[in-house]
Amino acid sequence: MMIENVKSTTTLHNGVQMPWFGLGVFKVEEGADAIDSVKAAIKHGYRSIDTAAIYGNESSVGQGIREALSENNLSREDLFITSKVWNADLGYDSTLAAYETSLEKLGLEYLDLYLIHWPVAGKYKDAWRALETLYNQGRIKAIGVSNFQIHHLEDLMKDSTIKPMVNQVEMHPKLTQKELLSFTKKHDIQLEAWSPLMQGQLLDNSVLKGIADKHHKSVAQIILRWDLQVGVVTIPKSTKEHRIIENASIFDFELTPEDVEQIDALNENVRVGPDPDNFNF
After folding, report:
1. What's the per-residue H, E or C state across the chain?
2. For site (Lowers pKa of active site Tyr), what residue positions does UniProt give (predicted)?
3. What whole-number distance in Å separates Cα of residue 2 and Cα of residue 228?
4. How far apart are CA 272 and CA 270, in angstroms?
5. What is the assigned CATH class of domain 9-204+227-254?
6. Are 260 and 230 in contact (CB under 8 A)?
7. CB of 169 within 8 A of CB of 190?
8. Average of per-residue pLDDT across 241-251
9. Non-local CB neighbours of 261 within 8 Å, separated by 6+ positions
């Protein structure tokens, strides 16, 4: 798998090119932090930005995108922008309306990827029909889901005419998601990791530190490189420019098969986020 730099892409099953690496903005407040982190990321080569309606920062993310495009002489087509429909808006008409609201806040004509944020029982199929409609109208380049387990995907695909292109889930060395990764690969659905660094909880891990020392890299860089090598798109969040640069400095080394095995062995099926089978929001 040739992943040479921060702009390298994977091809989704509908032919759309999605960057392997991007910036996440979960818990980044509307305002200067969101604007500046988006601008810093794009300045340093990032081409993928991931937000969501519930993050409450789409307006600032959109402003950051517009400023970065003009400052770096880029066009909208150079970027890959993702947002997500929130649980309260899951329904056919309400999902269509939520999409328009996100576009308006972002100040964009279209999204590259739009996701159902959580698999709310009894609601996600209607929302998916709305995503299929928008996709068929050419309003979105790709559609997908977030936090879907295997059984959710099977249930969705049973009645859908379009298969999800992406499933974005919590994934890190303590939650390696091997079964889900294998299922999504088999069905040509791209897995994407949110919270790849387990919200900083892995940075003192002795196994990861040992691998990091061997490669003269940080623990964060080791984890993000592992994501790519197992075939998972990753979107680490940071508001600090030096960290945004560091996170993306992972294309000049490769983990050995033994390194990957060691990291895989850290799995404990531990989550920092909600359980997709047991959430109430």
Report:
1. CCCCCCCCEEECCCCCEEECECEECCCCCCCHHHHHHHHHHHHCCCCEEECCHHHCCHHHHHHHHHHHHHHCCCCHHHCEEEEEECHHHCCHHHHHHHHHHHHHHHCCCCEEEEEECCCCCCCHHHHHHHHHHHHHCCCEEEEEEECCCHHHHHHHHHHCCCCCCEEEEECECCECCHHHHHHHHHCCCEEEEECCCHHHCCCCCHHHHHHHHHHCCCHHHHHHHHHHHCCCEECCECCCHHHHHHHCCCCCCCCCHHHHHHHHCCCCCCCCCCECCECCC
2. 84
3. 10
4. 7
5. alpha beta
6. yes
7. no
8. 97
9. none
Q: Which phi and psi (to 5°) does residue 29 adopt?
A: -70, 145
pLDDT band, very low/low/confident/very high, at 1 (cuts 50, 70, 90): low
Q: Give me the amino acid identity at 122.
A: G
Assess whether 55 carries a catalytic annotation. Answer: yes
Given the residues 55, 99, 114, 124, the one annotated as active site: 55
Q: Which residues, other chains included, contact 151 with Cβ-Cβ below 8 Å and sequence gap of 6+?
A: none
Where do the domains of the chain lie?
Answer: 9-204+227-254
pLDDT digits (tens, 9 = 90+) for 250-277: 999 999 999 999 999 999 999 999 999 9
pTM score: 0.97
In angstroms, the CA 183 to CA 174 distance is: 19
Nearest to 224 by CA among 41, 6, 10, 2: 6
Q: What is the pLDDT of residues 26-44, one digit of tens each?
A: 999 999 999 999 999 999 9
Residue 54: pLDDT over 90: yes
Find how far residue 161's CA is from the centre of its chain: 23
Q: Which residue has the tokens 């730099």?
A: 5
Q: How confident is the model at residue 2 (pLDDT cuts 50, 70, 90)?
A: confident
**Contact yes or no for 85/79 (Cβ under 8 A):** no
Q: Is 117 annotated as a binding residue?
A: yes
